[in-house]
Amino acid sequence: MQEYNDKRVLTSGRRSMLAFNKVVAGLTNLGISLMGSRVLAVRGRKSGEWRSNPVNLLTVDGQPYLVAPRGHVQWVRNLRASGEGTLRVGRKVETFRAEEVADADKPDVLRLYLKKWAWEVGAFFGDDVRADSSTERLLHIAPGVPVFKIHTA
Description:
By secondary structure, this protein is α+β, with helices and mostly antiparallel strands. 33% of the residues lie in helices and 29% in strands. The chain crosses the membrane at residues 20-41.
């Protein structure tokens, strides 16, 4: 069983995953969203420079969310510090404010995220976490998987 905590960061990835991320970001920049893909841009918490990363935007009952399957990575830390950013598909750019979701409120969002994108990000959750995992299991991993509710202007 993979250990999860509030400091979890998965930075290494297979070359195929890194190449896949570049392809997704490139297509999204051109205006082609793959299953909800967006290019997230957030100001760096130290440099103030804009940083971008491809993300999967999940909508639950009309509410958009960002989930960080790799844990507390740089874009998560930057978003916590700034509280806002942009999401882009092609020329369409939406400015948003982010609200971090409490661990107790994550299981339904994580379940839907895994249902939609396990084929892409399931390896980051470990072999024993799936869309049909128990609520208790999803609560166990919640501290290591940041989730943000997105509020657009």
